[in-house]
TrEMBL record:
CoA carboxyltransferase C-terminal domain mapped to chain residues: 35-292
Source organism of the structure: Oikeobacillus pervagus
Reaction equations catalysed: N(6)-carboxybiotinyl-L-lysyl-[protein] + acetyl-CoA = N(6)-biotinyl-L-lysyl-[protein] + malonyl-CoA
Gene that this sequence comes from: accA
Protein's recorded name: Acetyl-coenzyme A carboxylase carboxyl transferase subunit alpha
Reported function: Component of the acetyl coenzyme A carboxylase (ACC) complex. First, biotin carboxylase catalyzes the carboxylation of biotin on its carrier protein (BCCP) and then the CO(2) group is transferred by the carboxyltransferase to acetyl-CoA to form malonyl-CoA.
Amino acid sequence: MVNELEFEKPVVELRKKIVELKEYTAKADVDLSEEIEKLEMRLMKLEKEVYEHMKPWDRVQMARHPNRPTTLDYIQYLFTDFMELHGDRCYGDDQAIVGGIAKFHGLAVTVVGHQRGKDTKENIRRNFGMPHPEGYRKALRLMYQANKFGRPIITFIDTKGAYPGKAAEERGQSEAIAKNLFEMAGFKVPIVCIVIGEGGSGGALGIGIGNHIHMLENSTYSVISPEGAASILWKDASLAKQAAESMKITAPDLKELGIVDEIIPEVRGGAHRNIQQQAENIDAVLKKSLKGLVKLDPEQLIQHRYEKYKRIGEFTDLTELVGANK
């Protein structure tokens, strides 16, 4: 069953009404086709109004939707011959990150991504998609392998953040993420990162340094959750909605700021409505990205990555500032 969000209620109620009328028509042998047609037209207009004018907090809720497709969901539609690889060869196998080798339209690639669960039991096993340091070390091991054999790297980002527990800190959580950032910056193969849900803090950045960064239309990418920001700024987590609007964490905002390269459109009502169609939308953007990047030689790829991150943000030349104040 698909869980519905607060802002979707008018759409959901109208959908239910249409289903009820169709069922009544079938059972009572009454022709209500004209009324149903009118309601379906109204539904189309309402869906357009609701889903094309979503506010930042609505997008946050959509990114967290319990039925939102995960990395493994997309892998089965986007790639062939996927072989999952396990373990960091140091401590263990963190199931909050999955990865392996596969083929994308015949091209050998390495795929790495955060993995949430679909129910309580799996979420506990996957640690709710929050990796321990061994997860980032597993990801780095697979990326080292990709770099050695010249395979493009594709990452799927979907985590609230790296696990902040005592055990994770004892095993070097910060060091593991920092090393991934350092090493990914210098890999000599194309790296394409796609934010498919929540992109939270350093947990997202740990597999998020790439030549291209793309985001699904209703995903988020942020240094902290809206609830966390509200707690720090206003000492009140209930102001998360206000924080979400101020933080510029949605795909349209990040595209405007130059952090994201391309926004991947979602099917109406969210990616969970039609995973196959959503995968096709991702496929088109991914194909376009790799087509351009595979033409670059190793040094050009590193320079391309450097230039991308160099352009992010706004800078002021202090010498000009001092001169203007004289």
